[in-house]
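Service request form, structural biology core

Requester: graduate student, group of Dr. S.
Request type: structure prediction, single chain
Budget code: on file
Notes: please return the result as structure tokens.

Sequence provided:
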Amino acid sequence: MRNYIITLLAVCCYTFSQAQDQISPERKQAIDSLALEKVRDLSRYISIIGDKDTPFSEANRVMDRAEELFADGSEIGVSSINRSDINYYKVKQYFKRLMALNYDRVSIKWFNIQYISDLELQPDGRYVGVITIYQKFEAVSADGMKYMDTTKKDITVYVERKQTQIGGRLIGFWDVLLGDIRVTETST
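Core staff response, request fulfilled:
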């Protein structure tokens, strides 16, 4: 009988915890909007960091803000029409390389931002989805040499339940973090 009660309690706790981890359709819509907004923020931050007219102190401030959007250990892919390999860099390293590009003018614009996979519950309790973007990169060097490409990238999105304390009470909320940004296609 004792084992039965313990098993029943474990099942009830597991079911209750799973019920709390389920996302209602209304909440999912809000989370999707937040994820897309974070991707749009990242797009703006990348444009600012890459722009050669941005003062160094401003680029560093924006870089710090952009890093806050990502889960620990995330990487960003970099490709070129001049080579077949794709290089992946930790987020901070990617931003530093972007600031140091050897061009006089750099323009980076993202477009066609959209979910390509719905959020799926993972065994660890997080939800994972993928947002696809297209990035148009244009650069001009001092001698007038131009480089331009368009890259399709997939951004992993993590949604997890977190808690914060407000007024002595624990409040649960869903947080969205960006993960790896994988290059899927590069063209002229």
